Amino acid sequence: MNQSTLLEVRNLRKLFPLKKAGFWEAGDKHVHAVDGVSFELNRGEVLALVGESGCGKSTLALTLMGLETISQGSIVFDGQDITHLKGPALRTMRQHIQMVFQDPYESLNPLMTIGQLVAEPLVVHRLVRSKAERADRVHRCLEDAGLKPAEAFVNRFPHELSGGQRQRVVIAGALVLEPTILLADEPVSMLDVSIRAEILSLLADLRVKRGISILFITHDLGTAAYFADRVAVMYLGRIVEIGPTREVLANPAHPYARALLSVIPVPNPRQRRERLILRGDPPDPIDLPPGCRFHPRCPIAQAVCREQDPVLQDVSRGHQSACLLQT
């Protein structure tokens, strides 16, 4: 493990077994939510995980948090294997890895004040010795999240805030434990377009100010390009392309990455790409197709794609793609 590597994930799999329903027998079938994912997250880095809904992005984040048990593989955080942590050890680990959920409307308890919501992690982990210390950390995190002055927000309830302000409260609640990794699961998808840039700028500032590493989960490759150092493109439980953001955007090697990039709106008509509209729907994650799992929708698929299951291969320095027909 490289000294600059903070999180190392190797061959991570999360399979959900199908249960018996009435007269229908599930047998030994599983939903392949995350199916052999490997990547590294470096210190102070922003890695964007991009893919359409249902590809396994959120499930991957939940396994990293220990909210879902993994079926296979390993997770190493700062040199320590945290794959099977339980009890107090798992609670301690969660002080260092925090999550910002997609929907601020559902992730905040409507019966608690903003001050109580942000202070709750400190109470659960028993990290402060006095009410004054707790109040000081809550105020500091609220202001770091852009809610200034903090005194104007601590006694208010979530329904009294706008959507952007609620998401800032969620971010403050994640920051209060002073984590080293932030898992941001679609943190701007529920917000107005005018507010999205503000939240992305906030995360970029926190990354510099606090030295936080961020795994930024999104379905929008354009949003990922805003501030991510590297991009990992995920399809049907697997990473099919990963590399430096500029390299992936300028020279996408996998046809799925090209399709995602082609639909990003560009104001200059001379810079617009030809749109690649994928035909059909993603295959059933219970009954995966043989060979490359993207071949049923791939515009350049050939016979070999139906037979061989590709793995990530080097395209250029630091840029990998899982395509048998790389050009």
Describe how the helices and strands are arranged.
Blueprint (H helix, E strand, L loop, with lengths): L4 E13 L12 E13 L3 E5 L6 H9 L6 E6 L2 E2 L5 H8 L2 E4 L13 H12 L5 H14 L18 H13 L5 E5 L7 H18 L2 E6 L2 H7 L2 E6 L2 E7 H6 L4 H8 L50 E4 L2 E3 L6
Parallel strand pairs: 3-8, 3-9, 6-7, 7-8
Antiparallel strand pairs: 1-2, 1-4, 4-5, 9-10, 10-12, 11-12
Can you characterise this structure?
This protein has 327 residues and is α/β, with parallel strands linked by helices. The protein has one domain: Rossmann fold. It is built from nine helices and twelve strands. It has helices at residues 57-65, 87-94, 114-125, 131-144, 163-175, 193-210, 221-227, 245-250, 255-262; strands at residues 5-17, 30-42, 46-50, 72-77, 80-81, 97-100, 181-185, 213-218, 230-235, 238-244, 313-316, 319-321. The strands form two sheets. The protein has an eight-stranded mixed beta sheet with strand order 6-7-8-3-9-10-12-11, with helices on both faces. Strand 11 (313-316) and strand 12 form a beta hairpin. Helix 3 packs across helix 4 (131-144). The longest helix has 18 residues, at 193-210. It is globular.
